[in-house]
Amino acid sequence: MIVKLLKYLRGYVTFRLMGFSPERFLNLCSNHNILLWDLRNIDSVYEMKISVKGLKQLRPLLKKTKTKIIIKEKVGFPFFLHRHRKRKSFFIGIIVCIAIITLLSVFIWNIDVEGNYSRTTEVILEYLEEEGVTHGLLKKDVDCVKIERLLRAKFGDIIWVSAKVEGTRLKIKVQENTDIDLEDIVEYEASDLVANKEGIITAIITRAGKAQVTVGDNVAVDELLVSGRVDIMDDSKTVIGFEYYPADADIYIQTTYTYQDEFSFTYEYKEFTGKSKKTTYIKLFETNYGLFPKDDLYEESDRITNEKQLKLTESFYIPIHIGTTKQSEYVTITKRYTEEEAINRANESLVLFNEKLMEKGVQIFENNVKIEMNEEFCKAYGQIIVIEKIGKRVPAQTLDSLEEGTIENEYN
After folding, report:
1. What's the CA gap between 65 and 25, in Å, rounded?
2. Which of these, 67, 92, 162, 163, is most buried using a 10 Å CB contact count?
3. Which residues pair with 16 in a beta bridge?
């Protein structure tokens, strides 16, 4: 690819060689280090390509071998300039365009965020804008290390951030904490696990530390589950000291969620008339240019806008967006659920609630939700019994002396 580009920039011609001693001509070109390529024999006549520089060196060789050439094609930037030498405005436009692209290349025009699930990209971009990281920022002023530090400090569930500049794009990749139980990611040399919900212990697997509860125990919020303090005993099973670790365990409890959902039998429904207005616009930097449907075009309407940013390459974005906006008319109609429709809606809401729980790793154990209706409202309420993983990390309860631990053990 690079070789082809260099050949184009320098220019080359395709010619046919005529005469009685073409082989001698080719040998002389080789002896004089004149590069020929794409040599072909067409109807007993040699056809080949040569650079503009090499073409200028052929005159004495042609005279010596009594051959001549017929140029078939001229390719390359020098010939392009020659053909358009009288079109000054065209070249001025090219120069201006190159200058604009060069100027745009020193700014950030696109900020891309990947890996965020618990919060939208807009929330992250709004925070970065408050910190001065926004579109149009000079690339030399982008401090990727500072951006990484700011995002980790602002959003506690983001445990890893990578920021780097590619072309005119600032690419930010984040990794969120997917452990729903140990939500506060704080590194302690010694830590305990306490309950962040109340319920009945159904399973406990301890990897580090000492379990303080067993299967079947009822636990309350903030009750100690696993201690990071481990007793050191001698051969006679006498405690002679303590060691502290970051407690680590998988703890599951049976707990209860209260569910309630109420809605009216009457509701408003949008019925679209089929009338709509669609326009296209261009946004340069932060200013829109184009015609938009007026807000009062229809008495009631929905507006949908799609916008796409232009780019020269995969990582070279420019501050130009092309968008379309569509305004569709509708009329509001008041409807009423039938009894069957109301039950279906209540069940759909309950299924959605359960699905969100299961997405967090919660296992539905028992569903005790009832649906009741009167003339105006439909109500679903009850309790959902689940099994879920719990545990909140806190600094370990350390002891100043062995005697303090002995007294504590006597009370326990």
Report:
1. 6
2. 163
3. 47, 70
**pLDDT tens column, 235-254:** 777 767 778 888 889 999 99
| Burial zone of 168 (CB within 10 Å; 0-12 exposed, 13-18 middle, 19+ buried) | buried
> What is the Cα–Cα distance from 390 to 251, expressed in whole angstroms?
6
The encoded tokens of residue 201 equal 């212990």
Closest to 191 (Cα-Cα) out of 201, 182, 199, 200: 182
- Tell me which residue of 210, 193, 241 sits closest to 404, measured CA to CA: 241
Which strands make up the sheet holding 392-395, listed edge to edge?
210-211, 224-227, 191-194, 392-395
- State the Cα–Cα distance between residues 394 and 223, nearest whole angstrom: 11
The pLDDT of residue 292 = 57
What the block records as the tokens of 176 is: 């969120």
**Please, what is the end-to-end C-alpha distance for the chain in angstroms?**
78
Cα 249 from chain centroid (whole Å): 32
Q: Using H for helix, E for strand and C for coil, what is the string for 247-312?
A: CEEEEEEEEEEEEEEEEECEEEEEEEEEEEEEEEEEEECCEEEECCCCCCCCCCEEEEEEEEEEEC
Per-residue pLDDT of 324-335, as tens digits, reads: 888 899 999 999
Distance, CA of 108 to CA of 129 (rounded, Å): 13
**Tens digits of per-residue pLDDT, 88-119?**
787 788 888 889 999 999 999 999 999 888 78
**pTM strictly above 0.90:** no
Helix (H/G/I), strand (E/B), else coil: 346 = helix
How far is 322 from 281, CA to CA, in rounded Å? 6
Q: Which two tokens stand for residue 278?
A: 């669609």
Question: Exposed, middle or buried: residue 210 (CB in 10 Å: 0-12, 13-18, 19+)?
Answer: middle
Instruction: Please name each of the domains of the chain with its CATH number.
Output: 2-82 (3.30.70.260), 110-176 (3.10.20.310), 187-265+337-412 (no CATH), 280-335 (no CATH)
